[in-house]
Amino acid sequence: MDVLAHNSLKSMELDHKDGDPYKLATKRLINKVAVVTGGSRGIGGATAKLLAEHGAHVIIADVLDELGTSLANSINGLFVHCDVSVESDVEAAIQLAITWKGKLDILFNNAGIGDIGGSITTLDMKRVSKLVEVNINGVVHGIKHAARAMILGGNGGSIISSSSTAAIMGGLGSHAYTLTKEAILGLTRSSSCELGTYGIRVNCVLPHAVLSDMLVDAYRSFKQDFTTEEIRQTVSENGSLLRGRCGMVEDVAEAVLFLASEQSGFITGHNLVIDGGYTSSSINMTFIYREKKS
Ligand SMILES: NC(=O)c1ccc[n+]([C@@H]2O[C@H](COP(=O)([O-])OP(=O)(O)OC[C@H]3O[C@@H](n4cnc5c(N)ncnc54)[C@H](O)[C@@H]3O)[C@@H](O)[C@H]2O)c1
């Protein structure tokens, strides 16, 4: 079973015992037009599906053509080959929304690549440049061209980017990954200042240890035969305050849906942390909450 399918199953088991909330919820994005970069799989794939379930017309922009085309077909959306590090690719993906439906309401700037660890003293600068090109430049391209289209459209819009908890806490990602994800916070804040004038909201999500291909690859770079289930268990036990609960791609998708919809209409310049509480507390000190023996 692939990671996405496995994730979906676990998420349903844990959270959705009383029925499928996607079907129960009122549709929140009727006739909205969205572009999701990195939408072929993982967090972007789950978000593309959820936005479509809520009535949005979705364009998936990714370098994984086969997966992306199949997912786009399944949600009545479109797929466009797009390497976010190439500005003209991102511009073309945004333009496709205008050609297709005459407007752009939502951009989920999610495409990104991971990195393996290693010492700052031996940092491979070619690798750093690669991460900067995709994780930072890709997001800059997205905000720049989505903002242009949204300003011209005159109806505001919502731009959401994928940062990471590595942006707010040391020790959660490699040096290169960390610096790229922190840059997204700065650009989110600065562009929200300018774009608020046009009713365009700019926010980012900070997921933590979400079971996707990226996370599995990262774990396997340390131990090749790690199974997906072992990784899920390790993260569930050590990676959140909600013991036994590992972050799912659907958890991030729900947060993006909120930021994309009018339910978050007064929220901009915000970084929404999705980490099961991990970065807000020290799990090493929980003994102080135990009842004292008299
Ligand atoms: N999984 C986690 O634990 C986690 C935690 C924090 C942040 N994030 C961030 O969330 C985002 C999605 O990650 P994921 O976990 O779903 O990983 P993933 O590897 O499953 O998905 C990433 C997607 O981005 C696409 N992509 C990569 N490079 C691209 C490029 N140059 N142009 C266009 N598309 C490209 C991939 O093809 C893939 O579809 C990333 O930005 C990642 O850094 C993930």
Task: Give an overview of the whole structure.
- With 294 residues, this protein is α/β, with parallel strands linked by helices.
- It has a single domain (10-207, 247-274), classed as NAD(P)-binding Rossmann-like Domain (Rossmann fold, 3-Layer(aba) Sandwich).
- 46% of the residues lie in helices and 13% in strands.
- It has ten helices and seven strands.
- Strands 3-2-1-4-5-6-7 form a seven-stranded parallel sheet, sandwiched between helices.
- Strand 5 (157-162), helix 7 (175-195) and strand 6 form a beta-alpha-beta unit.
- The longest helix is centred in the middle third of the chain and has 29 residues, at 125-153.
- The protein binds nicotinamide-adenine-dinucleotide (NAD).
List keywords for this structure.
7-stranded parallel β-sheet; Rossmann fold; 294 residues; 10 helices; alpha/beta
